[in-house]
Design brief:
Blueprint: H1 5-8, E1 23-27, H2 53-64, E2 70-74, H3 84-93, E3 97-102, H4 115-121, E4 125-129, H5 135-142, H6 146-159, E5 171-175, H7 186-201, E6 207-210, H8 217-225, H9 229-238, E7 253-256, E8 262-263, H10 266-270, H11 290-293, H12 305-308
Parallel strand pairs: 1-2, 1-7, 2-3, 3-4, 4-5, 5-6
Antiparallel strand pairs: 7-8
Length: 319
């Protein structure tokens, strides 16, 4: 894989600082049952990195000792981690809102037959990746058969009440472009998704989030190999909007990797750019003081333009 960080080091992106911490985002490991072209984690079936029980307990202790009310769990496919359900149960006991970044096909994997029921019983919010409502586009980006398996997963969630009015079970979908372009307006695309998925598959969901493809890891390497990296970076810079700076996710979030080390965001985690605090070059979640994070400078590189381009984007969609 071609490294993108050397091409991102020089930047004129404005300095930013953290505000009040609201979200703990945790990557439970890079193992995944899929291997997608756009994946900024470079996740896949051959990855071995998985968070152990001790680190999960460190996360739970951190939640207990802070006022953070949202736990955002990601991967890979986070549900593969053997401690996923233990973490969910512990966080729910403390009244924490939980988001599961689900690829949908994991709901159909052997050993995960009761996963949808588990998520529903613990009132876990599901953010599900579905890069298009057309079969050919999804399979081209994520692999043959992924579209049909994803629809099966959505039907399982809908049958339990996810995405349906009055149930309180939230199901949001996540879109990302097929290639080096910005996503279309979120509101317009959401209307298209709702109409087409209802008509074609009888699927319901709450909201659609759009996400810009980050020029890092697998997607960034593809851009380099095709000679499109600099052109894509120029697109991100040309469409930069200063008004998006206020809403970018790194201001209110920290990202924790599978070993428990802390980063300003998931993208910095993948670039191995750790959060800088108290003179440490690397900080573990069991060393973090939440007060020390306020006004802490956020590590920036040129990929930060991806979050501020066009309509802007965060883990909760357009800004």
């Amino acid at each position: 894989m071609l490294a993108t960080l050397p091409l991102l080091e020089e930047t004129d992106f404005p300095d930013i600082k953290r505000e009040k911490l609201e979200i703990l985002q945790v990557n439970l490991g890079y193992l995944c049952n899929q291997s997608c072209l756009h994946c900024h984690v470079d996740a896949g079936p051959n990855r071995k990195e998985q968070m152990n029980r001790q680190t999960v307990d460190d996360l739970i202790k951190f939640l207990q000792n802070t006022n953070i009310r949202t736990l955002d769990i990601t991967g890979g496919a986070p549900e593969i981690n053997e401690h996923f359900r233990y973490l969910v149960k512990a966080a729910r006991r403390h009244g924490v809102r939980i988001i599961d970044r689900c690829n949908l096909t994991i709901l159909n994997e052997p050993g995960q037959e009761d996963l949808a029921e588990f998520l529903a019983s613990h009132r876990v919010e599901v953010v599900a990746s579905l890069p298009c409502y057309l079969k050919d586009n999804v399979d081209a980006q994520r692999g043959k058969g992924v579209y049909r398996s994803s629809i099966t997963g959505l039907h399982k969630l809908n049958a339990l009440g996810y995405g349906k009015p009055g149930t309180g079970l939230t199901l949001n979908l996540m879109y990302n472009p097929q290639g080096p372009s910005l996503p279309p307006p979120q509101d317009t695309l959401e209307a298209d998704y709702k109409r087409e998925l209802q008509h074609r598959e009888g699927v319901e969901f709450n909201s659609l989030f759009v996400l810009v493809n980050m020029p890092i890891k697998r997607f960034g390497s593809m851009l380099i190999s095709k000679g499109q990296f600099h052109e894509y970076m120029q697109l991100l810079k040309d469409t930069y909007k200063a008004s998006n700076l206020k809403g970018i996710m790194c201001r209110t979030l920290i990202s924790v990797d599978w070993q428990g080390y802390v980063y300003d965001c998931d993208f910095n985690q993948m670039l191995e750019l750790p959060l800088l605090i108290q003179g440490r070059t690397k900080t573990h979640i069991n060393q973090i003081s939440i007060d020390a994070l306020m006004e802490n400078p956020i590590v920036i590189r040129n990929h930060c333009y991806g979050c501020t381009a066009g309509q802007g984007c965060s883990c909760s969609g357009a800004l």
